[in-house]
Amino acid sequence: MKADVLYRLAESWFEEQQWKPFPFQKETWKAFLQGKNGLLNAPTGSGKTFALWFPIVLHYIKNNPDYRTRHKPGLKAIWITPLRALSQEIKQSAERVSDDLGTQMTVGIRTGDTSAKDRVKQKTNMPDLLITTPESLHLLLATKGYAKLFKDCSAIVVDEWHELLGTKRGVQMELALSRLKTLSKTLRIWGISATIGNLEQAREVLLGPGTPALHNSVMIKAKLNKKITVKSIIPKEMETFPWRGHLGIRLLEAIIPIIEQSKTTLLFTNTRSQCEIWFQKILEKHPEYAGEIAMHHGSINKDTRLWVEQAIRNESLKAVVCTSSLDLGVDFAPVETVVQIGGPKGVARFLQRAGRSGHRPGKESVIYFLPTHAIELVEASALQQAVKQNAVEDRIPYLNSFDVLLQYLTTLAISDGFYPDEIFREVKQTFCFQTLTEAKWHWLLNFLVMGSQCLQTYDEYKKVEVELDGKFKVNNKGIAMRHRFQIGTIVGDANLAVRYQKGGYIGSIEEYFISKLAVGDVFTFAGRNLEFIRIKEMQAYVRNSNKKTNKVPSWMGGRLTLSAQMSELLRKELYSASRPVSEQSLEIRSLTHIFERQRAESIVPKPNELLIETFKTNDGHHHIFYPFEGRFVHEAMGSLLSYRISLLSPITFSLAFNDYGFELLSDRELDLQQVIDNDLFSKDYLMEDLQKSLNATEMARRKFRDIAVISGMVFTGYPDKGIKMKHLQSSSQLLFDVFRDYEPDHLLFQQAFTETFEHQLEEGRLRLALERIETQEIIWKACQYPTPFSFPIITDRLREKLSSEKLADRIKKMTALLTKRRKLSGGKDQSQADDI
Length: 836
Description:
This protein is of the alpha/beta class and 836 residues long. It contains 34 helices and 27 strands.
């Protein structure tokens, strides 16, 4: 069938829907049918799904002219989605196209939510079009005879590629694609990505640097100019001394008119615990919303999540409080408005969430920003600028993730086995492992067979056998079973299933939270108050309770940090506070009283200034630095600085940090002039000093736990019989200490430090921040009292020691004392500060 006939088929379908295909959709159809690979850059709600489902189906029609009367079975295309929540939506789009064109093509889903029965069915009768996740794709590579399964697969589409890029799930995809390229000679590889700063590099990572696939590829950009309107919710009253969480819920009434004026509103929170709190508080204040408001996050059971998603489509919900579980591609046409609660910390995340509203080509997206403390309004102003400039972050891809490579090699070994020379050639074509040397490759093979140098006397680490023909194979069924349970790169705390005594499943909560509960304790989860009864075999049993409670589960890793792009925009907006009022944004003007109070005690820094403040309270001597670089960079900079100061004089600090700055608290005053004179912000000897600083080894130890799990050195346990996190931690710590003492060149041990510096401490960003500070004038202000800028940092420290009610009381007293100080003549009464 000729290409113009195929295009006409697609265009006729669009006409039947009373739609018109966009130029980017037609361009994608043409490139795909010409046999090209590519990256499609298109915003959420632009019709990108039809841009790639259509050519996949048209390609089948082209090769099977009798497609209406005869069905050719077998897997023809794979659609990778990073979120299970997207699967149903994508399936409906695919079925709509294949059914309307009369192809008889079947569509199936294979994710962690797929039942064992359906998985078995798929083994013997694989759907034509398979929607799956990176983890489930690797599980397919772990099945015997997988080569036959993939040999006729003509296309693989990686949806939301920007979400996978810069994560180990992205590395998983690179490795899977390297294998599929060999198995299917006619495979077309396509990625779909929202706008990111490094789109060209994103295409290179997807297709492999310098590969034939990359040379035969195109970049297609939608260029739809979607209008995004950002509206800040500015409180009528704001404390002069802001602290994290002091606004937030207090602004609840401000969102009620927004909910009322829209068909459906999504309220995005940054953490699952924040999601639980907002849902509960809205219902407490507005019980009339019962049945019209729901909650959606990753720890709630699948059936509830699916029900919520369908209810949004049916327009039966007024509002949904959610987390990143609804960030991506699900098409919810009725959503008119989005509210972002608290700073999203990144431009791309904010734009993604904004795109949930007006999720149709040509529709305006409206997003409200609700600050959780006053200084977050500076972030709101920065986001306004980001939307105007379309300034979006890069996603930095991983390099040399040996833990993921070891997991992948074990996956191949438990299915049909592998020949090292063949797989080495494939792996070298990936972006992540392009610099892999033969020496390191042989080390990895040796690790699989012998368990590395200092573990070779322990049989449990000898997983792979080398057969006579040189094939690497796992023949032990127990090893194969354990490995299949552990395929994946997302490592969190051990999760416990939360169930009613009679067996109803509610969701999952991390072990460390449950372990702090006593029998009879009541906590809020999935929108209900639950009384804890007991734990049995990784199950937490509960019953409904009418008691009120302030206990809400918190999940590890819930705190986000400012991206590099966001930090730069935030600094620019902050510096605008020194410009004439006519040049300031509405958000910056609303903070005038805070800036005035800041200037009374200290300064609001200008672009060429780094502010340091010192003052004394009952807690000790506070030394606060304001680089405005995000919490991860501040944690690293604080550790670095405290180590360098300790070389000048024996002094110990405790460290606190947020996105705006960091604090070194000590029991005696620090000579800050000495810090300035000795150039302690120098980037020289950065790596050496970081390694010796307070936290580097401990951070690497924590990072190694994840690496040990991903690589298979530590087993997390069978489903429903998981291993307790403290046991996992102690097993990995023991291995870490063994490698440190006896095998310091162990690749996984070294990887723990590399990842700590590059990803957690963000060594690259830290170096750039230090370079910037070298060009700035350091302004040291010896203050008598805490300033508005310092207040969020010093109150965050109290959060670890006090309950939420006691914290609020303590802060109220601190604020009252600081406000009272304004009335003191000349500000000479140090006793007021000592009371804080």
